[in-house]
Specification:
This protein has 10 helices and 14 strands. By secondary structure, it is α+β, with helices and mostly antiparallel strands. It folds into 3 domains: 150 residues, Beta-Lactamase; 106 residues, Orthogonal Bundle (Helix Hairpins); 162 residues, Histidine kinase-like ATPase, C-terminal domain (Heat Shock Protein 90, 2-Layer Sandwich).
């Protein structure tokens, strides 16, 4: 796994940041809701406790007969009516200012400190249950304290219900927002994903502008910047191709002049040494001219790359015309040039100029390199066109082969010879090439969507170069 694949995507990071912010906001809001609900519910309960304490205090009267000088004038029925609650237990305690017991539950002690404001609220445990206590001071000739306590189970249950009723909808909203954010972020980043897919799928030679359609200005500007870069690269590539083509064309003129002068010198006679030198000049010019032609062929391949459209081409006609061009040359070299498979029309999908270049380069390579300086037996060179049947019985592929019975090419060198500037060194004669012939054929085959292969010739002798094309 590459380092890039281990990194999170931009969409995932944006969604993660937004979800984190939403969850933090949800937690803060939940804490605030719980605190506010608990605060105001506590105030409501405390107000109820104070009111109950005031009701009890209204029925505490002076009683000289009691030790505290006070007594509670409430019957049990009246007390149950005053301190009534359907869900909670309520307790009370009346004490004199001096701390003497007057009435109520003696264990319910919650005297405030001297500096505590009244009413005084505190939570204690009474009778095994948590209670909330409220204490008031009744002023008068005989001041006294009234403490009323109430269990908190019902209050806590109500608080939980209130919190659940509030936070549950917020949680649902949070989930909906998360899914909504994921979809929105995905939609906003879709142009970036399409741009990435377009760049990964397009050919490395395709420098056409990319199309970025987005509602986000940053992505549109990114597409414009990328197209500007592609335009700069296109101009540089065009300039490079034009430079190579111009150089090749400019070289042709002086080379042709050199050949003309050398041929004129040969016709005029001269010393044997001069004649040999002139013949060497002509051979050198021939090599240089062929190199120029090969460079032009490569420049043409670069030019049509990415824009080539395949169309039906009569392969039999292309091969027949190439044979006519080479027949005089092969006769001069003593090569028996033949062909097979040209009796019927054969159409393939391709480009006429590229197919012509393939046949010309294969025949030229064979004439130059196949038979060495001292061929054994009659040199034979055959161009074969063979249609291969598919699963339905109809011909779907056509194989073009150039076969010789020459010195061949070692299997270990065949793949290497399809690269540029690769030359064999089996015999001195074979060094005259620049190592571009099979490289041009390989490049043309790639542009034609064809498959190029090199095999030994018939009976294991010579070399068979085949290119498999699509039938039109």
């Amino acid at each position: 796994m590459s380092a890039a694949r281990r990194l999170p995507t931009l969409g995932r990071r944006l969604v993660l940041h937004m979800i984190t912010a939403l969850v933090l906001g949800w937690l803060i809001a939940s804490f605030g809701i719980v605190w506010v609900a608990a605060h105001f519910m506590q105030r409501a309960y405390d107000r109820g406790l104070v009111e109950d304490a005031l009701l009890v205090a209204e029925r505490v009267l002076a009683d000289p007969s009691s030790a505290s000088g006070l007594s509670l004038k409430l019957t049990p029925a009246e007390l149950s009516s005053v301190l009534f609650d359907t869900t909670e237990s309520i307790y009370f305690l009346v004490r004199s200012a001096g701390g003497q017991f007057v009435a109520g539950h003696p264990g319910l002690a919650a005297l405030p400190d001297a500096d505590e404001p009244l009413p005084y609220f505190v939570e204690r445990s009474f009778d095994g249950a948590p209670v909330r206590l409220a204490t008031i001071l009744k002023q008068g000739p005989r001041p006294f304290y009234v403490t009323v306590g109430q269990t908190t189970a019902g209050r806590d249950a109500m608080l939980l219900q209130l919190v659940a009723a509030t936070l549950l909808p917020l949680g649902v909203v949070l989930v909906v927002l998360v899914f909504g954010i994921q979809r929105l972020v995905g939609a906003d980043l879709a142009p970036l994903v399409r741009l990435e897919r377009d760049l990964l799928q397009r050919d490395a030679r395709d420098l056409a502008p990319v199309h970025v359609e987005s509602r986000v200005r940053d992505f549109v500007r990114l597409g414009e910047s990328f197209n500007s870069l592609l335009a700069t690269i296109r101009r540089a590539v065009v300039a490079q191709r034009e430079f190579a083509g111009n150089i090749a064309h400019e070289l042709r003129t002086p080379l042709s002049g050199i050949r003309a002068l050398a041929e004129f010198g040969l016709r005029d006679g001269g010393k044997p040494v001069m004649k040999e030198q002139l013949e060497e000049i002509i051979r050198t010019q021939d090599k240089a001219s062929r190199l120029v032609d090969q460079l032009l062929a490569l420049a043409f391949a670069e030019e049509v790359s990415g824009t080539l459209k395949r169309e039906p081409v009569r392969l039999d006609i292309v091969v027949r015309e190439a044979l006519l061009r080479f027949i005089a040359r092969t006769d001069a070299q003593g090569i028996d040039l033949g062909a097979s498979g040209l009796d019927a029309p054969v159409e393939v999908l391709g480009n006429a100029a590229l197919l012509e270049g393939v046949v010309n380069n294969l025949l030229d390579n064979a004439c130059r390199h196949a038979f060495g300086s001292s061929p054994v037996g009659q040199p034979q060179l055959t161009v074969s066109v063979e249609a291969k049947e598919g699963s339905t019985g109809a011909a779907t592929r056509v194989t073009l082969s150039v076969i010789d019975n020459g010195i061949g090419l070692p299997e270990a060198r065949r793949a290497d010879m399809m690269q540029r500037w690769r030359r064999t060194s089996r015999e001195p004669m074979l060094r005259e090439g620049a190592g571009l012939g099979l490289a041009i054929v390989s490049e043309y085959a790639r542009l034609l969507g064809a498959r190029l292969s090199l095999h030994a010739g018939p009976d294991g002798t010579g070399l068979s170069v085949s290119i498999e094309l699509d039938r039109a």
